[in-house]
Amino acid sequence: MNILVLGSGGREHTFAWKLAQSKRCKALFVAPGNSGTEAIATNLNIGVTDFEVIKNSVIQNNIDLVVVGPEDPLVQGIHDFFLQDSALKNVAVIGPQKAAAELEGSKEFAKEFMMRHNIPTAAYESFTKQNVEEGYKFLESLKPPYVLKADGLAAGKGVLILNDLNEAKAELKSMLVDGKFGEASTKVVIEEFLEGIELSCFVLTDGKDYKILPTAKDYKRIGEGDTGLNTGGMGAISPVPFATKGFLDRIENEIVKPTVEGLKKDNLPYVGFIFIGLIKVGDDPKVIEYNVRMGDPETEAVLPRLKTDLGDIFEAMATQTLSDVNIEIDDRATTTIMLVSGGYPEAYEKGKEITGIESVTDSLVFHAGAKAQDDKVVTSGGRVMAVTSYGNTYQEAVKKSYQSIENLHFDKMYYRKDIGFDL
Ligand code: AMP
Ligand code: GLY
């Protein structure tokens, strides 16, 4: 197969790294890619939502299968675009159609889906500009902290957790009435605060059957001890030590099965990844959110543990024969640590030379916000690279990643030194 991966982050470099090892992969393309993908595939200078340009490139390069990394093209309907085009309809797309991508594209849609299919999640109500007064009353009926979620995609910034009632009311007004998150906050979901420890579960589905990939735990805050601003993710560990067999069985029975069955019942075609953000409340798993793609940096920890040929898996998903595939997982733990630009997730500088990549021999280095420039690799984003290691325990893996990071340098490089601290 000729395969195209859409995206430019660490997640996409990891997909490309794994697909480059596939016996099914004849030619590999990444759009737009980064310095990491450039070394193992052909980068195409195309944006992930430029559907017409993607179309031309798919035809020109005889692409058989497209793997969609980020959510934007899915929510904008890239899979539907392929199905509706006579020249593209036989090209396989890994990623759900637009209607199902609403699981990530609209928080209200996701909550209604969970209610309809009895999937455990926080209690909620949703509000618009028209009934903002009722929103204030609903907030008064809740105990702090207050959880406010912009309904639409807001680049990971649309969730606010506030301790003060007046502040919560003011934020609700700012979202609904003043358009704090633009179109994304014309509707706001207010939900019950859940207290517990978070983990992520990754499911592959071909719309008929499903397979569960290893769990991972992501570290979202910029600062050590889980403090400071939210980021895209500063590191991840797989598997999650507190996810025992009994707990995983409950996740499968109470959440994964009803989710896949619910998609079928609601007639929502789904070939792709379902990323279920979970929280363990007491002994119970509850859903915080759905994403319709893999996590980043969770992919950088999860895929290195997958022994099965990823090309075989994607082929089986596209032909609805996923039930025939045996998913083999490496028993070792993995960890990934993100190196970020100083200042991220706020303003930061780009174009800093990255050195030492070739000196890392004990870990995998996945490029994210990094690009090739002349014969150098320079920073081009906030999250710059993910350093993944294996270990018999996650502690061993974490230690190895930190040792490898000693070799890597760029001006104002920052990373968290406490990944795994809470386990
Ligand atoms: P989301 O974008 O829905 O994943 O929310 C971002 C983060 O906000 C989650 O990873 C949680 O840490 C937190 N969060 C979201 N919803 C809740 C909730 N109902 N209770 C507690 N924390 C939450
Ligand atoms: N690391 C969280 C995400 O990919 O949404």
Protein described:
- With 423 residues, the protein is α+β, with helices and mostly antiparallel strands.
- The model has no long low-confidence stretch (mean pLDDT 96).
- The two termini are 41 Å apart.
- The protein has 3 domains: 2-94, Rossmann fold (3-Layer(aba) Sandwich); 124-191, 2-Layer Sandwich (Dna Ligase, domain 1), CATH 3.30.1490; 197-405, ATP-grasp fold, B domain (D-amino Acid Aminotransferase, Chain A, domain 1), CATH 3.30.470.20.
- Strands 12, 15, 18, 19, 22 and 23 form a 6-stranded antiparallel β-sheet that branches.
- The chain is built from 13 helices and 23 strands.
- It is globular and about 60 Å long.
- It binds adenosine monophosphate and glycine.
Q: Estimate the strand proportion.
A: 25-35%
Largest sheet report? 6 strands, antiparallel
Number of helices: 13
Q: How many domain regions?
A: 3
Tell me the CATH topology of the largest domain. D-amino Acid Aminotransferase, Chain A, domain 1
Distinct small molecules? adenosine monophosphate, glycine
Specify the structural class. alpha+beta
Shape, per Cα inertia axes? globular
Average pLDDT works out at 96
What's the β-strand tally?
23
The end-to-end distance, rounded to whole angstroms, is 41 Å
For the record, what CATH class of the largest domain applies? Alpha Beta
**Oligomerization status of the protein chains:** single chain
Return residue spans where pLDDT drops below 50 for at least 5 consecutive residues: none
Fraction of helical residues: 25-40%
CATH-defined architecture of the largest domain: 2-Layer Sandwich
CATH superfamily of the largest domain: ATP-grasp fold, B domain
> What Rg do the Cα atoms give?
21 Å
